[in-house]
């Protein structure tokens, strides 16, 4: 009797979950007819979301069809609308609106996350986000369209809401990107707004001097201890009353897990992530494993939890896929762990900062760190070659190798 694993999502966690399940299936000599693996997503591709702050965001997509074919993974095109954990089925809606029910023996929820947009007046109408591919493409088109407008303070000014990782990478990219579009002589302003006392508040004190120096060198201004109160067609008003004329507001105020997590009978954290068992199983729905940005998963004995990042999503996915297959094949599941945590924050055209540990100990900065960031963005986070051995080696590396 054939059994099946269904994986929702083809992002970093979903791709690695599919490969992790396929690897164990192959290792145990089980045929795809006996254990089917199906990935459900709008297209057989992975958006390289950590690169959406860069130029040409429409190019930040990696095809997966050949990789899936090489590893006997099926792809079902569509979006998941509902999960019925009691019946062990999901409802898939195709691009033409047709819906179908898909049963599963084990489900891996790797549906990712979306940007969090608070109810700030005017944000939905006049703000831009870039956490999804279509958003990043829309922002890029808007930036290029600025060249057709007459020079003004509003045209030449970009306000970035949020001084976290994403906000800083967008802000430090903007001076060079706008100079290319508007000309080197354009009087460009980039302003970061955040309610926190410092930029990159999650990184702590050690990296801060270098980050602040880079912002000064690039001419990026900051407005801290204050939030954006309202947006309109001509600009933003801050909570302290300051008015900034701008045509471009980029919101990067945090992420929330896929709303599909709310359909499961499970405990969730304030980001909407499901609190999972050590093997990533959903306690209240034992045939479901949550992974990537949908899972609140402990990384180590010190009590740290995985961040919403591709660094954690890849490893989480590799464990979740392995465990879903192991559960069906009568093999022991493996407890997820990821004791090493690093960050590499892009800070403009010629600099970055690389830190290690949850306390962000600075390892390298400047051009050397920029070279590491370039390697991460252009090589390390991309899918493996569309070949079985390379794919399975990639899964094993994700499960066992730390930076």
UniProtKB/TrEMBL annotation:
Cofactor entry: FAD
UniProt keyword annotation of ATP-binding present: no
Pfam annotation, one family: Pyr_redox_2
Group of enzyme by EC: oxidoreductase
Keyword terms of this UniProt record: FAD, Flavoprotein, Oxidoreductase
Any coiled-coil regions, as ranges: none
Record-annotated FAD/NAD(P)-binding domain positions: 4-312
GO annotation terms (biological process): aerobic electron transport chain
SUPFAM superfamilies, alphabetized: FAD/NAD(P)-binding domain (SSF51905)
UniProt signal peptide: none
Molecular function as annotated in GO: NAD(P)H dehydrogenase (quinone) activity
Name of this chain's protein: NADH dehydrogenase-like protein
Organism: Edaphosphingomonas haloaromaticamans
């Amino acid at each position: 009797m054939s059994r099946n694993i269904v994986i929702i999502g083809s992002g970093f966690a979903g791709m690695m979950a599919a490969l992790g399940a396929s690897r164990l299936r192959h290792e145990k000599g089980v045929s795809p007819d006996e254990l089917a693996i199906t990935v459900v997503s709008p297209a057989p591709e992975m958006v390289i979301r950590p690169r959406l702050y860069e130029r040409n965001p429409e190019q930040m997509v990696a095809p997966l069809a050949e990789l899936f074919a090489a590893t006997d993974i099926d792809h079902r095109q569509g979006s998941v609308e509902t999960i019925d954990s009691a019946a062990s089925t999901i409802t898939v809606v195709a691009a033409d609106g047709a819906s179908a029910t898909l049963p599963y023996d084990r489900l891996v929820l790797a549906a990712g996350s979306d940007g969090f947009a608070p109810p700030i007046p005017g944000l939905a109408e006049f703000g831009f986000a870039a956490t999804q591919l279509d958003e990043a493409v829309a922002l890029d088109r808007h930036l290029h369209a600025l060249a057709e407008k007459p020079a003004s303070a509003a045209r030449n000014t970009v306000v970035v809401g949020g001084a976290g990782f994403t906000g800083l990478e967008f802000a430090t990219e903007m001076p060079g990107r706008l100079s290319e579009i508007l000309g080197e002589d354009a009087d460009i302003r980039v302003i970061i707004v955040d309610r926190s006392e410092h930029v990159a508040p999650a990184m702590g004190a050690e990296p801060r001097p270098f980050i602040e120096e880079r912002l000064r060198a690039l001419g990026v201004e900051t407005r801290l201890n204050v939030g954006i109160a309202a947006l309109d067609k001509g600009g933003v008003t801050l909570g302290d009353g300051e008015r900034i004329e701008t045509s471009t507001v980029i919101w990067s105020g945090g992420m929330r897990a896929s709303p599909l997590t709310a359909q499961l009978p499970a405990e969730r954290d304030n980001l909407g992530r499901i609190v999972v068992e050590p093997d990533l199983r959903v306690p209240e729905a034992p045939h479901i494993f949550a992974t990537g940005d949908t899972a609140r998963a402990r990384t180590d004995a010190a009590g740290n939890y995985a961040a919403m990042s591709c660094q954690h999503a890849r490893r989480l996915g590799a464990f979740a896929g392995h465990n879903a297959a192991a559960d069906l094949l009568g093999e022991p599941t493996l407890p997820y762990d990821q004791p090493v945590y690093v960050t590499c924050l892009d800070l403009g055209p010629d600099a970055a900062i690389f830190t290690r540990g949850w306390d962000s100990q600075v390892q390298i900065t400047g051009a050397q760190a920029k070279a590491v960031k370039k390697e991460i963005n252009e090589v390390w986070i991309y899918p493996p070659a569309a070949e079985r051995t390379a794919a399975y080696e990639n899964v094993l590396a994700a499960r066992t190798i730390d930076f």
